[in-house]
Amino acid sequence: MPLPRDHAKQAAPPGRVWAGGARALGALLGLGLAAFGAIALWSQAPGGRFAAAALAGLWVIWVGASCLLASADPRSWRAWGLLAAGCMLLGLWWVSIAPSNDRVWAADVARTLRAERQGSLVLLHNVRNFDWRSDDDFTVRWETRRYDLDRLRSVDMALSYWMGPAIAHTLVSFGFDDGRQLVFSVEVRKERGEEYSALAGFFKRYELALVAADERDILGVRARARDEDVYLYRVHMSQTAMRALFEQYLDESDALRATPRFYQTLTANCTTIVYAMMERIVPGLPLDPRLLLSGYLPSYVQEVGGLTPGYSLQELQEKGRITERARRLGPNADFSAAIRQGLPVQAR
After folding, report:
1. Distance, CA of 211 to CA of 113 (rounded, Å)
2. Do residues 212 and 184 lie in contact, with contact meaning Cβ atoms separated by under 8 Å?
3. What Rg, from alpha-carbon coordinates, does the chain have?
4. What are 231's strand-pairing partners?
5. Is the pLDDT of residue 13 over 70?
6. Strands (E), the chain
7. At what angle do helices 48-72 and 14-44 cross, to 10 degrees?
8. pTM reported for the whole predicted model
């Protein structure tokens, strides 16, 4: 009796299955190498945009030709040698790209914070206090300010939303008993005329900057000139923890001045660096996707017990939205006091 048609089919030989899998894996590897190299060259290659595009195109052709040759004859040492040589050249070029503090920087990140410490007293040089009329029209003003860390009274977390609900810039504001506020912000250190790209941020395009600034400057420019949506949350910390976090920022500033680092969109950004500093103060803080999707950071901080207790997250968000208050303020208003009107700072 003849077998049914389906049963009569013979299974493919194991060798053919493995060969097909190897080709598929090789194709994925080739696509990954081609994409990484092309974007890296486009982001970093010298000689201007035309030269960068040409080099990126040549790299894609090189990887594509190598993979086609290897697919046609997996045992061809010439094909694999061609691919390995290309990867070696790209790798040597990539590791040679080093961060620098010596470039023609954009005005708002042109100077680096420098601290002099004597016990609880801190003298900060290059505190930014620009007068912003628009994002590209401003009066440059760098100041030297003195603070007594024994007089620290509060820590607030500010989130500035610039690209949808999941993405926000994280800033930390320290309050003193005389009403003064100082904000620290980990930022992209752009060169003059350079635009920010989250994709380029994966590929050594930007250095890191740590900016210390007046609230009127750094929160005001985001709410007004850049049309971002800004929220403020009181973070409940002990006096010891507040001082430790402030000093962590100073240590980070000293480290960046001595050894510049690249900004990295996922691993070295405005939120992950703050998390790393906090984790040194409070070991065991859990890792969480919201550290990357920083727009959802308030829910994370609330879950670890960091926000004002007794309020729902929705209430904290509604009362902490300072955007409209910041936009309405005149030049002579007490900016820091005005934006905190109604902000929950004590448990209920």
Report:
1. 7
2. yes
3. 26
4. 159, 321
5. no
6. 114-118, 121-128, 131-134, 137-139, 142-148, 152-161, 168-176, 181-189, 207-213, 229-235
7. 170
8. 0.88
Q: Are 170 and 159 in contact (CB under 8 A)?
A: yes
pLDDT at 26 over 70: no
**Which pLDDT score is estimated for 69?**
80
* % of the chain surpassing 70 pLDDT: 92
Residue 312's alpha-carbon distances to 47, 112, 115, 323, in angstroms, are: 54, 39, 38, 20
The per-residue pLDDT for range 71-82, each reduced to its tens digit, is: 777 777 787 888
- Residues 6+ positions from 287 with CB-CB distance below 8 Å: none
- For residue 57, the Cα-to-chain-centroid distance in whole angstroms is 29
| Residues 93-119: tens digit of each pLDDT | 999 999 999 999 999 999 999 999 999
CA dihedral 66, 71, 75, 80 (to 10 degrees): 20
Give the distance from CA 67 to its chain's centroid.
Answer: 35
Cβ count near 311 (within 10 Å): 17
What letter would DSSP give residue 228?
A: -
Both tokens of 146, joined, read 């003195």
Phi, psi (5° rounding) for residue 82?
Answer: -65, -45
Amino acid at 197: S
Lowest mean pLDDT across 30-34, 104-108, 209-213, 277-281: 30-34
Crossing angle for the helix pair 239-258 and 272-281, to the nearest 10 degrees: 130
Answer for the pair 230, 160: CB distance below 8 angstroms, yes or no: yes
Q: Residue with structure tokens 């209920």?
A: 348
